[in-house]
UniProtKB/TrEMBL annotation:
Secretion signal, residue range per the UniProt entry: none
Membrane topology, as annotated: Multi-pass membrane protein
PANTHER family to which the protein is assigned, alphabetical: ABC TRANSPORTER PERMEASE PROTEIN, INNER MEMBRANE ABC TRANSPORTER PERMEASE PROTEIN YCJO
Similarity remark: Belongs to the binding-protein-dependent transport system permease family.
GO cellular component: plasma membrane
Keyword tags: Cell membrane, Membrane, Transmembrane, Transmembrane helix, Transport
Predominant localisation class: membrane
Domain ABC transmembrane type-1: 84-298
GO terms for biological process, alphabetical: transmembrane transport
Organism (species): Haloferax massiliensis
Protein name per its UniProtKB record: Maltose transport system permease protein MalF
Family annotation (SUPFAM superfamilies): MalF N-terminal region-like, MetI-like
Length: 311
């Protein structure tokens, strides 16, 4: 019997705690940590969004209640709607790129004719072990607008001119997408490979007997079989893309001229650059609400929660 099992048995045999109350007792430490580090900050954020909180008044009780004024100012700010639009465009393009990369790499490392698949799968998860800020900083150097930038060196080797990657809006946006795909592709590949391994070989064999080629089998056998896991992974990574902060901030702080300012960067700038904590809190809560609605609609539409209540 392990130490944990012995401790549980002693608690269960205690005259103070009955066996019926044991699950609650075991959950209480985790519930306390959740309340301390998750629920309280969220509730405090909600409170700040209805005040005119600034650095001089924070945690001192001197902020004044302003009601919905922060939300009105945010929703009437053109920069907010620019950030919202750029964020959704980033989510759409980055998720599409991540799904394509995940499917492509997944098909390669599960192919019957591919050698060294175990070694390749081990290499795929290497980016997961690297700190995000380190990886993003490396990619910022790759997309440097200077002549020594790796991306510009490839362009010059191909006979093309250099590109001001981080000074041009759409070139910077492309750099965001490539970096985001690199950060998330190991997760997408792991989910895709797991789904591909569960695809019935009998279905493929039956399709081959009927004369179906590779692409026909992929469209009519493989994709329907892996649709739900890939959709689930896509929803999760879409939520992560919506909350992306480090890539635009480290690359060029959402520039040039705030044109690529994703929603989280916009909220951070309003709170800490312009010291409008109330408006910053309102922006973050709007982001939380949008992400929550997005997740619920996609889970419901994709029927990803079917069968959960039957477990």
């Amino acid at each position: 019997m392990s130490v944990v099992d012995s401790a549980v048995e002693r608690v269960a045999d205690s005259p103070v705690v009955s066996r019926d109350d044991l699950p609650l007792v075991l959950v209480l430490p985790g519930l306390f940590v959740f309340l301390a580090f998750m629920l309280f900050p969220v509730l405090y954020l909600v409170y700040l969004s209805f005040t005119n909180a600034e650095p001089a008044t924070l945690f001192q009780g001197r902020e004044q209640w302003v009601g919905l004024a922060n939300y009105v100012r945010v929703l009437s700010d053109g920069q907010f709607w620019n950030s919202m639009g750029v964020t959704w465009l980033f989510v759409a393009t980055s998720v599409a790129l991540k799904v394509l990369v995940g499917l492509g790499v997944g098909l390669v490392v599960t192919g019957k004719r591919v050698r060294g698949k175990r070694f390749m799968r081990a290499l795929i998860i290497v980016p997961l072990g690297l700190p995000g800020i380190f990886t993003i900083t490396i990619w910022r150097g790759i997309f440097s607008s200077a002549e020594f930038g790796l991306a510009n060196q490839f362009l010059r080797a191909a006979g093309l001119g250099s590109v001001a990657w981080l000074s041009d809006r759409w070139m910077a946006f492309l750099a965001y997408n490539v970096t985001e795909a690199w950060l998330a592709y190991p997760f997408m590949v792991i989910i895709t490979v797991s789904a591909l391994q569960d695809v019935s070989e009998e279905l493929h064999e039956a399709a081959m007997i009927d004369g179906a080629g590779f692409f026909a089998r992929f469209l009519h056998v493989t994709l329907p079989s892996i649709k739900r896991p890939v959709l689930f992974a896509s929803i999760l990574t879409a939520a992560a893309s919506f909350q992306q902060f480090l890539i635009p901030y480290v690359f060029n702080q959402g520039g040039p001229s705030r044109t690529n300012e994703l929603l989280i960067v916009y909220g951070y700038r309003e709170a800490f650059r312009f010291q409008k904590y109330g408006e910053g809190a309102a922006i973050m809560l709007v982001a939380v609400a949008v992400i929550g609605v997005f997740m619920m609609l996609n889970v419901k539409k994709g029927q990803l929660a079917d069968g959960v209540d039957d477990a």
